Amino acid sequence: MAESLPAQTLPRWRRAVLKVGSNLLAADGGGLTARHAQALAGFVASSHAQGRQVVLVSSGAVAAGRALLRERALPGNDLAARQALAALGQAPMIALWQSLAQRPVAQVLLTHDDLRHRRRYLNARATLRELLLLDVLPVVNENDTVAVDELKLGDNDNLAAIVAALVDADLLLIASDIDALYSADPRRDPQAVPIGHVPVLTPEVMAMAGGSGSAVGTGGMHTKLEAAIKAAAAGIPTVLFDGRNAVTAQALSDGQLHGTLFDASGNRMQARKYWLRHAPAAPGRIRVDDGAARALGGGRASLLPGGIVGTEGEFHRGDMVEIVDAAQHPIARGLCQYGVAEVRRLAGKHSREIDAVLGYSYGAEVVHRDDLVVLTEAGA
């Protein structure tokens, strides 16, 4: 069906999240197959060769686990059994991607709670950022063995949108078993037509979503549209395409989309800055010297220990804190990598001394520039 949609240019991107559903990985006789994954892995490799970064969000663990136990009678759709299958199938799912990748693959298991909890959010963000710096392909999946609600919903579409915001992606790509959003379910309505461009996800657009397209996958078009809404709110456009079509995957490598493009609500930086500016702050402050204040005011610097002269109030690792200058004027706010007791010990120290002072390190920055918004810059 992809040929019924004219090619359109992909939005410019440097970092993307690619979500691959279990219906693209499941073999007809059970287990996993590289039939469709091969072309998608080729897109990832081509993107890497172009200097771009891709984070993969992959389903398929339950299908892989079920194949390993095909000789046993499984207790129907029992949740505990599905969780056991997910645990069993993680290894072959990762092995599949490693066999197709041209570089090391790392597994990252997350739940939505990991991304709602401030400390775990920062840990996940730091880990994924480091993996990308190391030229490793992160393969993210929901931790289905403990994520009860997410396992019921098959919510890797929404997880992919959350991960896209987590890693500051420029684009969310959803590989599906259908080539686009249609005006109605094309499996039931022969008059349904594909929609190439969705500027805004309105209730009318949401009403076009059908059910799950596969007995293997548990998500459907509705969860994909939910994911597009989440990504749009974070300033990230979403593309939906046919992951079964190798020609379509190759076209993505050439910057061409045969599928549906969902526009972002605004640009990614505006969305991130808005969230950082308005998220509730902890009742604590970090005071910095004049040099740090000038550096932060430029909008391109992180807050390092050396520029800190003191703290006020209480805050914990992952809290939103206010940064003030010597005259107590607020100059920035952001997510703090360290708690107040740790910041007091690090004040005035060089970043390379963090490990020696604390006995551990969460990174060289007390507040990373990606987690910081300047309050005094023009137009902010």
Task: Provide a descriptive summary of the structure in words.
The N and C termini lie far apart (45 Å). Helix 7 runs parallel beside helix 9. Helix content is 36%, strand content 19%. The strands form 4 sheets. The chain has an 8-stranded mixed β-sheet with strand order 4-5-3-2-6-10-12-9, with helices on both faces. The chain has 380 residues and is α/β, with parallel strands linked by helices. About 3% of the residues have low confidence. Strand 2, helix 1 and strand 3 form a beta-alpha-beta unit.
Mean pLDDT: 87
CATH class of the largest domain: Alpha Beta
State the helix count. Answer: 14
Q: Output the CATH topology of the largest domain.
A: Carbamate kinase
Q: What would you call the structural class? A: alpha/beta
For the biggest sheet, the summary is: 8 strands, mixed
CATH superfamily of the largest domain: Acetylglutamate kinase-like
What CATH architecture of the largest domain would you give? 3-Layer(aba) Sandwich
The whole-angstrom Rg is 22 Å
Please count the beta strands (DSSP E, at least 2 residues each): 17
Spatial arrangement of strands, main beta sheet = 4-5-3-2-6-10-12-9
